[in-house]
Structures are given as structure tokens and as C-alpha cells.
Amino acid sequence: MSTVGDLLTLKVEKLLWRGRGLARQDSGQVVMIEPGVLPEEVVDVRVTKTAKDFLQAEAVKIQSPSPLRGIHPCPHAADCGGSRFGMVAPETGTQLKADILRDALPRALGRDHGLRIPELRVVPSPQGWRYRQRGQIHVASGLPHAMGHASNDLVPLTDCHLLAAPLASAMPALAKGLPDGRFTIAASPDTGQTATERDNVLLPFSFPDFGLTLQLPPSTFFQANWALNQHLVRSTVDALHGFERIADLFSGAGNFALPLASRGKSVLAVEGSAPAVDTGMRNADRLALKSVTFRDANLAKPAAWKMVEDFAPRAAILDPPRTGAKGIGRTLLGMPGLERLAWVSCDVVNTVRDAKPLLAAGWSISSLTLFDMFPGTWHMEVLMILDRP
């Protein structure tokens, strides 16, 4: 029986949700290997945790590399935990994520709903590297760092291939003006202007398809891959064509609500972050988008849902945090006027958990799209459209 610290040599069968590799010992015991391995590779691993039915391990050496494996372009890749899938070409990474999603969804849905999965649409990122307009750095002694892989150690950075070129170039100067700690830095895709969360500036972010330019403070959350976000927003808006009253739940600063309002939709945007709500309201006022209403409310509280019920939406967008929104499926079932949901998920396994009451009541998944929002990593964004029977 294997114990923590043991070294094993295993062959990776496939990749699982969250990018882990699945392997088995000769006994049949499952070993889940931390992200960074590829299917068909023979790897030496060290056991890091034992459980009743499986082991967890980390790779220490790739004995027989996959033909998909190439050289990681980042000089910090061996130590930094930021881009564990950067050893494959971006288009290969996108396909691997599609395979992971196709494997994970039937398991998450279970026997009752696993056969109702529509064909997966896949939208790659326009840029495989240098795509992030927003990111976090750890500052120590005025220098930028990243968190080390599987540790709390800080890794000094001279560059980051995930960051958009203007942001990566400005990173040392931005860090120099900050105290020790973790900070958000951002760059405008329109102008290349950079700033930190401590700077009192507004950066322009355009939606060309909707004729909008938002002004966003670096401290407010927005989709870091702004180029692919254009496709996500357009797909979501298109999916809600024909619906005039739409609730945008966990709306942030209005990533969906403002483009919808530009199309004349009546939108209630509900968000629990007061700064994000303030940013959304300011942009709506500046752009004269009068059909959107922003509300600062915690969707874990009944009062927030009373507000949504009074609005009487015919469709809703849900974009909850990675941990999901437990119980939301039952709450949505209590709103008989809802006909369609556009569920945006950065962890679709948690989303399926939350959506199961709807599926059990007859709602169906009518379309499923993977957006490779985070190349170089195992993370992905999924747009799931659900319809009332």
C-alpha cells in the first residue's frame, strides 16, 4: 500500500476535471496527478495524499513525454504555478480542454441527465499568449513575483507570458511603486494604458459590436481575456434574442447588462459588490443606457430574490463565482415566468450541481459552448443555455 512520499512510475490514461491526470497502479488503485502531465505519458510521481479510494500525486519526472509536449515559452515555468498547460500549443490545449469537458459533464450530470448533452461548440482564444488585460502579482521589495507551483513560495518574475504585452512590459515599474503584498494590475486593450488597483484611473474597454466603450477601474473585476470576452458576450446576447426582460445575476460591472441594454432590452443587474455596481451605474449613465437598473444585493439573501421576482424576467444570465451558487436551482424553479437561462461558468462541475433541480424538473441543456478564456492553464469558461420544457 502506497503512502505519502512514495515514488511511483505510472502511465497517464487521460486528463480529468481541473487538469489532473488519471493513472492506475497495477492493483487498480486510482492515482490523480496534479496538472502538468498529458495523456499517454509515462511519469515518475510522488504521492502527496492518500484517501480511501485514490491517491494524489505530483509529477517529478516525465520518463516518456507525449508528442504533444513542447518547450514552455516562459523562463519561469518550472517554478511558477501560473501556466501549467503552457507546454502544449494553444490549439492543442483547447482540444484537451474540450476532451476534459466531454468527459466531466456526463459524470457531473449523472445517469438521469447524462444523455441529454448537446454537441459541444468550442471557441478558441484569439491569442494563445499575451492575452490577459488584468492579473495579479505578488510584490516583495518592490519587485514582481508569482506564487510557486503547489507552494506558498514566491517566484521572482522578469516577464509573464499570460499578460498582454503592455502589461507585462509595465509590470516591473508598477511593482516598484507598491508595498509588499498581492495586487491587481491592468491594461486597457484600447490604449495600452496600465495601472494598479491603487491608481485612481479609469481604463477604456470597448465593445465594437455594440458601439460601447466602458470605463473600468483596475480594482473592479472584468474578464481578463477581453478579446475572447467579445465572443462570449455576443454569444450570450444572441442566445437571449426575443427576450425583452432579462435579469443579469452576479452581474459584476455590467459585462452582459450594458451590451443588452444597448440593444434596448430591459435589464435588472444584481451584484453583491458595491464598487462593481457603482462602476456599472456610472457607465450606464455616461452611455445613456436607461433600460438597465443596477442593484447592490447579496443573492444568498431572500430580499435579493424578492427584487428579481418583482422584476418578472423572462430570461436570466447567471455568472456566479467559481464556487457556484448552492441552492440557486431551487430558487429559480420558484420563478414560473422564466423561460431561458444563460449560465456562464468557470467551473461547470459546480454549475451542474447547482442546476440539477432544474434538470430534474424538465429543463434541458439546449446548447453548450466552451470558451478557451485562459490558454496555458486548465481553466475554461462554459456557456450553458437551459430552456424550460
UniProtKB/TrEMBL annotation:
Residues 1-61 form the TRAM domain. GO terms for molecular function: rRNA (uridine-C5-)-methyltransferase activity. CDD domains: AdoMet_MTases (cd02440). S-adenosyl-L-methionine binds at Q223, F250, E271, D319. The active site is at C346. Keywords: 4Fe-4S, Iron, Iron-sulfur, Metal-binding, Methyltransferase, S-adenosyl-L-methionine, Transferase. One of its GO terms (biological process) is rRNA base methylation. InterPro entries: NA-bd_OB-fold (IPR012340), SAM-dependent_MTases_sf (IPR029063), TRAM_dom (IPR002792), U5_MeTrfase_fam (IPR010280). It holds the Pfam family tRNA_U5-meth_tr. The keyword Thylakoid does not apply. Belongs to the class I-like SAM-binding methyltransferase superfamily. RNA M5U methyltransferase family. This is Deoxyribonuclease/rho motif-related TRAM.
